[in-house]
Amino acid sequence: MDGRIIKEDIAKRLDNRLKSEILRKCIYRDYCISDLSKILGASIPTVTKNLTELIYDGFMTDLGKQDTSGGRRPSIYGLDGRAGFLVGIDVMREQYNMVVTDFRGKIIDTFEWCKYDLKDRLESVRGFCATIRATLEEHGYVSEEILAYGIDLTGRVNPTTGISYSYDLGDRPIKDVLEEELGAICHIDNDSRAMTFGEWMCGGLAGKVKDMIFINVGWGLGMGMILDGSIYCGKSGFSGEIGHFPFLDNNQICQCGKIGCLETGCSGSAILGEVKEALNAGRASMLSAKYKAGEELTFDDLIEAIKAEDVVAIEKTEEGGQILGRAIAGLINIFNPELVVIGGRLSAAKGYIMDPIMSGIKRYALNLITRDTKVCYSSLMDKAGPMGAAMEARSSLLGIL
Length: 401
Prior knowledge:
This protein is α/β, with parallel strands linked by helices.
């Protein structure tokens, strides 16, 4: 079944603004009818009627009585986890992570480090979808029970048009091909923005901050922003390209073709490049034997070397962290965020990346601004991307994104 047909059917069931507003509010927390009435500015009978219809359609449920200090206890209503499944997929280089959640966002299943090299060709995208379908069917998920897919991709993605500029399929947006092949609504977004949304919706401080910056330190370098309680995409969906901020006077050519991009100094690819330079200069490292043998050093090799406390890997990671800390200090001075989250695969380096980041922030950020900003690791780690993709898919399904 075409994902657009499913979306039209759901749109008919959400046939007025108030239903959408009730669902929008209940994505973040559960409510009693009187509270919904006050928040939405609608009468209790009107809210009750629409809520009853949402329960009948399977989107909402009665969660029982609220604990109160006295008096009659009101019933609390929230999203019905049984409404259907959401699938979130975080596409990386040559592999992907996938989660299946219920409608409330509770993780039901996790599929990690699934091998697939997605290319910008139609047959590759179709093969990717076939792999997803096969995995889900093998674990008992019926296609009719899957309400929506969220898929995050590297590079520039416009979630409104459904176009990924990393996966150019000619005159067809990749979103249309995904919906055609998977038979459900698909929402695509940039990986850093999906991680941001996942951390904000489901992380350790979920629902507690209105302004947040998420730094995705992986093979490349990306950023997502929650501004005044909403994910910020920019005019064309290209916000958050911090990796391509002209920050360094290093004469290094970035993958984007420009010179001196921040990504050339503090991304996983840049740090691995610095490690290779050190090995060329004769520095001793646990990576030396593999490198001298002419084998390709990978991002995984770098992560493992850091975890094994390899001196060269740690030294180059700390140098990259210092550069990143100075850049984050600038972001804090500009945005004055409540929270800065460090995520992405290189965050597995823990103190070896975080300590120099914090040093750079303390040195270059304004004290008056920084004192109210908390800096922490992603609490979701590898699940931030797929969880964010799944939650974005739910919001897209309900017409909120």
